[in-house]
Amino acid sequence: MQDIQEQLAALRQRIARIDRRYGSPPVPRPNAFPPTAYEGDLPVIETVPGVEVETEFGRHFEMERSWEAHKAHGSADIGALCELPHDLLHAISNGLIPSAPPETWAFLDTETTGLAGGSGTYAFLVGVGRITREGFHVRQFFMRDYGEEASMLTALTKYLEQFQVLITYNGRTYDQPLLETRYRMSRQRPPFARLEHLDLLFGARRLWKLRFESCRLVELENQILGVERYGDIPGAMIPYVYFEYLRRKEAARLQPVFYHNAMDILTLGCLTGIVPWAFHEPERVNLRHGAEMVGLGRWLRQAEQYDAALTLFRKGIDAGLHDELLFRTMWDVAALEKKLERMNGAIAAFTDLVASPNPYRVRAYEELAKHYEHGEKSYAMALEMTRCALAIEDTADLRKRELRLLKRSTVRRTARLV
User: Fold this and answer.
1) Over the chain, what is the mean pLDDT?
2) DSSP letters of 14-83?
3) How many Cα neighbours within 13 Å face the side chain of 392?
4) What is the rounded CA–CA span in Å between residue 149 and residue 57?
5) In 3-state terms, the chain is what percent helix, strand and coil (to 5)?
6) In whole angstroms, what is the distance from residue 109 CA to residue 170 CA?
């Protein structure tokens, strides 16, 4: 009982901190939405720059936000996005997006009433970003109450008609299925079937999961783009803020939510100018960290581009890796050389692995034993490699190999004496 009371007390303190933080106008910070003078329960239309939009299903609220082409988002040049090649998404999408101008890419992100999904979860805010010659533009569709959902979804469908590609971050698993459910609940047809969908999360993970502990969008925004957000809100608290808005009608609380959504979409657009390049021209991409090279090399290996994968693996080793990834990559190099039947390279790589303690040392000794036994018919060397492996790890398979090699060595010595 005491534990429950302590948990409740901690929860009340956390809610109180949130109330204090968002109960008054946010402090102006770089990149934040312009501050607006408001107090009390002024409606959204009077506290957030935007307009009320009417459709055949009613009304909803929309906001727009732009970043000019001459500006930057951290290290990303916003103006350069419109110059991205039309076939940039071909490789990262496994050929599903052969060619599409950047102006036809829709960058979508939602803010919802919960993280679990299901028919009871609403997407109360949907943001769509686009690349233009003037810069990067975000339109946000917002339902001020549950009754505005049908109108918001109708407007979203109409807006997406101008795009060919949908780009999200974890949207294939979360955002798109959730929106499809909301469309069905509103008796409307989802607009996504004609759009090719690129979920950038999978490419980002391939490239950076070996380098960073987390590939969350906001983490990559900080680590890759060098952006530090101000006036933001943790994503986990957004449902609470929306429920508080519905209960109290204090629209001031929503500004950090709109800002969070817009920044996520801008970051998604800028990362789309970075991640697909690695898959588009892997032999020319300018990677600086060994872990990134290894991550891209693994994708090339999966795509059966073995020589290119080997090149990146070796570059990654030369660039420097932590021990666990270093030895795994050395093993991958050896295994690929063997697969390509380039035994000189494979033997050299296996020999490097047995030179120091590591998780692949026993397996490398076994591979060397196989080579000397079957490739060079040098049973004495094969036996030596097997006994070196046994000294590290005593297994039944190694014992069987040792006995077999002992017999073969004995037979060969006897044959020579005769």
Assistant:
1) 88
2) HHHHHHHHHSSPPPP-TTSPPP----TT--HHHHSS-EEEEETTEEEEEEEEEEETT-EETTEEGGGGGG
3) 18
4) 9
5) 55, 15, 35
6) 9
Q: Which residue type sits at 136?
A: F
Distance of CA 23 to the CA centre of its chain: 33
- Identify whether the C-beta of residue 127 lies closer than 8 Å to the C-beta of residue 108: yes
Closest CA to 166 of 205, 195, 186: 195
Q: Taking each helix axis from N to C terminus, what angle separates 323-339 and 290-302, rounded to the nearest 10 degrees?
A: 30
pLDDT (tens digit per residue) in 282-292: 877 888 899 99
- Closest listed residue to residue 237, CA positions, set 14, 39, 12: 14
Amino acid type, 102: P
Question: Are the beta carbons of 279 and 298 closer than 8 angstroms?
Answer: no
φ, ψ (nearest 5 deg) of residue 196: -70, 135
Find the DSSP H helices in 161-254. 176-185, 200-208, 217-223, 238-248
Q: What is the dihedral of CA 83, 207, 172, 232, to 10 degrees?
A: -80
Q: Which amino acid is at 320?
A: G
What's 356's DSSP letter? S
pLDDT band at 21 (very low <50, low <70, confident <90, very high): low
User: How far is residue 114 CA from its own chain's centroid?
Assistant: 21
| CA geometry: angle 140, 264, 196, nearest 5 deg | 75
106/7 Cα distance (integer angstroms): 43
pTM: 0.81
Strand 58-68: give its sheet, edge to edge.
51-55, 58-68, 135-142, 123-132, 105-112, 165-168, 196-199
Non-local (6+) Cβ contacts of 213 within 8 A are none
